[in-house]
Amino acid sequence: MQTLITDSPREAADFINRGQIVAFPTETVYGLGADITNDDAVQRIFLAKGRPGDNPLIVHVYSPKEVEKVAASIPETARKLMDRFFPGPLTLVLCKQSRISPLVTAGLPTVGVRCPRHPVTRAFLRECRHPVAAPSANLSGKPSSTDWKSVHEDLNGKINCILRGEQSAIGLESTIVDCATEPPRLLRAGAISLDELRAIVPGLLGPAAIEEHAQPKSPGLKYPHYAPSAEIRLCGEEYGVCEGGKETAWIGLSPPPEGAAVTCRCDDAGEYAHRLFRFFRECDREHIRTIFCEMPPPEGIGQALRDRLRRAAEGK
Ligand code: TXA
Ligand code: MG
């Protein structure tokens, strides 16, 4: 299959409207989309990524108003979160309308809905006739793609089109909140922190409450994620030092250690998040064996970063 690369949101949307699958930029990470009303196209997303069929997709809508097209009802707490954070890097899990295909939701009675903020994403979604189901645009198990070249590396020849944009500003996937239960609970940390969510919904449950459940509430959380081929070792105050060496790399906020072959020093947690997944991929290209990742403090996006770094370290 030929994968067309375009800068035109309208041309990319035409592919979606013809039942094809398209990678597109968002402020979090790149997505791989299909028309939610087209089961064949949705099925092809799973094939292209090698994604397990029991892992549901997030539905992307152009405007907050369109949430009503996919959700059966919108509880008061969800409304408040939408008013504050849509459009933006937040996904809400809501009871689904019966017409939403079980392929999209992996048979769950709920649907994850997100209204992205990035202008190119919005221009693209506005041209699509229906909401767009999209997971991150990477091969299953690999780090999410935060630039179009990473999408190309994983999916060239397997998808119909890549809508080319800039490197994703945030660089980590959206915050996910389950609003189908009362009180709502955080399912995945992201750029919108627990404190920011609780400023709007004070009773919102944090990740500690999730761990009490034997079954992960978000099916995707049980799969290994975010992992490059290199081994990830955590370092920093609570974790010990980075041992440099010619096949090692380091990323963090402190001055880089001596001896690591590739290093990436970031000014703050925001820059760390922005660069992390691309750095993982660069390290794989350089045949790095071990990547030392300095744990950032758990404030703001630092919480989400710590979550992704822990998962990446567990992945191997
Ligand atoms: O920032 C993002 O969220 C990006 C961009 C493209 O929007 N998307 C993304 O999708 O990260 P994905 O498929 O890589 O991760 C979605 C996560 C999975 O862990 C999935 O299990 C969970 O969301 N999810 C989707 N629908 C759900 C539902 N109804 N209930 C619980 N979890 C759900
Ligand atoms: Mg993903």
Automatic annotation (TrEMBL):
SUPFAM superfamilies: YrdC/RibB. This is Threonylcarbamoyl-AMP synthase. It holds the Pfam family Sua5_C. GO terms for cellular component: cytoplasm. Required for the formation of a threonylcarbamoyl group on adenosine at position 37 (t(6)A37) in tRNAs that read codons beginning with adenine. GO terms for biological process: regulation of translational fidelity; tRNA processing. ATP binds at residues 51, 55, 110, 136, 144, 188, 226. One of its GO terms (molecular function) is double-stranded RNA binding. It is an enzyme of class 2 (transferase).
